[in-house]
Amino acid sequence: EAVFSASLLQSSVLFVLCLCVSDIQCHDWGVWSEGSVRVYDGEVAYLYCPLFSYPTLYSYSQTQNSSLSLLWYRHTHTHELEQPINLKLHTLHKDREYLWIQPASAQDAGLYICMLRYDLFRRDRELKGDDLVIYRMMEPYTGLYTCVVSYQMNGRTLQFTRNINVIAVVPDVGSKVPIILNPASDQIYTVTLGDTVTLSCRVHLPHLYEEKQHIWWTIDNKTVEQLADPRFSALEDTLVSYDYGDELKERVLNVMDFSADDLQREFNCSARNSRGFNTSRAVLKTEPYVPTLELGCGLGVTLALMLMMFVIYHVFWLELLLLYRSWFGSDERYTDDKQYDVYISYARNSEEEEFVLSTLRRVLETEFGYSVCIFDRDSLPGGTITDDTLRFVGQSRRLVVVVSPCSAVRGTQALLELQAGLTSMLHGGSLRVVLIQFKPVRRKSWVKELRRARLALTLIRWKGEKSAPLSSRKNIKNINIFGFYFEVIYFNVMIMIY
Ligand SMILES: *[C@@H]1O[C@H](CO)[C@@H](O)[C@H](O)[C@H]1NC(C)=O
Ligand SMILES: *[C@@H]1O[C@H](CO)[C@@H](O)[C@H](O)[C@H]1NC(C)=O
Ligand SMILES: *[C@@H]1O[C@H](CO)[C@@H](O)[C@H](O)[C@H]1NC(C)=O
Ligand SMILES: *[C@@H]1O[C@H](CO)[C@@H](O)[C@H](O)[C@H]1NC(C)=O
């Protein structure tokens, strides 16, 4: 009993139908447990490939006519994947749809797989005696082929193995002369004088058996070696691409410190193999001279000048305007028949009286030579104030109104002057009105006329001592340039007259 169970072998047969060259599209029919075979140790066993038990699928004779072949595999514990059955072992023998094990031993236990495979090998490749013939070479046939030779000596089987790597190459038809892709006939190499110039030559070298193909550069029909000039150096050629034996190779020529004389030389790239020779000249052209430095400098200087002028204008615009006025400004006396340049209106008996009579008057009259009309000084005694005021305002080109808490109070001379000025201005007169705020005044306390005038006119603020020095520019910001025509009376405050 013990012997029996020990010698009992159990094998199952798995069967897989595969209809492809590779294992991409295999149909697995699963495990056929009825096919399990029991055999006593040392006895003969045979496995039947169950694929043929379905006549509708395949009959064995059919496989003989088509490119189908039956293959046996085995799952072993030592390998992850199933291994092909080694039919060279004397114990294993394939006979039609049967696999014989004679005799079976304990190592033969396991899972057996039978596979029907479409085998292109049988159509395009054939074993003829000791030779393997490939009738029609195809990409899948590339790879390592192994040849095992075994023989008997002194009753022992000996063997040796050789590997042959098979690659696919293009057919040996058509011209096999090297083709120079670069320099192409219409190609122009741009070079920079004084720089290191790199010329690249690309050659298509068709596949030829066991043959050295050469690529080289010549300068005036001299190779780099013949020229022996250290400025010229050619690198080893490099393989750019490989396509079934056809090669695309590149060879680079470096010329250091490229000179104008080099431009006259003939740079040719040549290639040779046993089938022929090709050469192509590289057409060189210098880069148009771009004086980067000079151009940059010029641009820089221009920009700097522009910036300087911009700054000068912004800092000294006032002086510039005055200068302009003194040089080109027309003397207003000849443009109309008015008597005064400026009429100054102010509140009498107030702080600003002092300001008007000394500071404002002095600057306008003495510094800038305007003819100034100050009613109290210039009017002749005896006349009607109202008529005289209207006449004087009418005789002036500008009305400067000094606005302060005391000014423009109802019934005063100042209000009369303001009204006269506004009336003249509104009725298309050529009078220009300028408001100077001598002291901060709350808007609410202004008379209606002043509030209206403020909407249309610029108000210039007198800032006391801060405005006093002639060089003061503090008031520039307060000037709202809203007229088109403007002229500046330089005074400790800016007065814009339009
Ligand atoms: C296979 O070829 C044999 C002759 O070689 C022929 O008698 C048989 O009918 C063919 N079978 C098929 C399925 O083509
Ligand atoms: C190279 O030679 C072949 C055949 O002689 C020719 O067809 C091809 O145009 C040549 N190419 C160049 C770049 O000279
Ligand atoms: C270039 O030089 C070789 C000898 O080195 C000569 O056989 C060939 O004719 C020359 N080719 C030209 C275009 O001068
Ligand atoms: C250089 O190549 C041109 C063709 O581009 C050829 O006409 C000329 O003869 C070649 N020169 C040499 C020296 O090989």
UniProtKB/TrEMBL annotation:
Membrane-traversing stretches: 299-324, 479-497
Protein name: Interleukin-1 receptor accessory protein-like
Family of the protein in this entry: Belongs to the interleukin-1 receptor family.
Domain TIR: 338-480
Domain annotation Ig-like: ranges: 41-128, 178-285
Gene Ontology cellular component annotations, sorted alphabetically: membrane
Signal peptide: 1-26
UniProt xrefs under SMART domains: IG (SM00409), TIR (SM00255)
SUPFAM superfamilies linked: Immunoglobulin, Toll/Interleukin receptor TIR domain
Annotated compartments: Membrane
Keyword terms of this UniProt record: Disulfide bond, Glycoprotein, Hydrolase, Immunoglobulin domain, Membrane, NAD, Receptor, Repeat, Signal, Transmembrane, Transmembrane helix
PANTHER family the record matches: INTERLEUKIN-1 RECEPTOR ACCESSORY PROTEIN, INTERLEUKIN-1 RECEPTOR FAMILY MEMBER
The UniProt record lists the keyword Cell division: no
One Gene Ontology molecular-function label: hydrolase activity
Mode of membrane association: Single-pass type I membrane protein
Biological process per Gene Ontology, one example term: signal transduction
Domain of life: Eukaryota
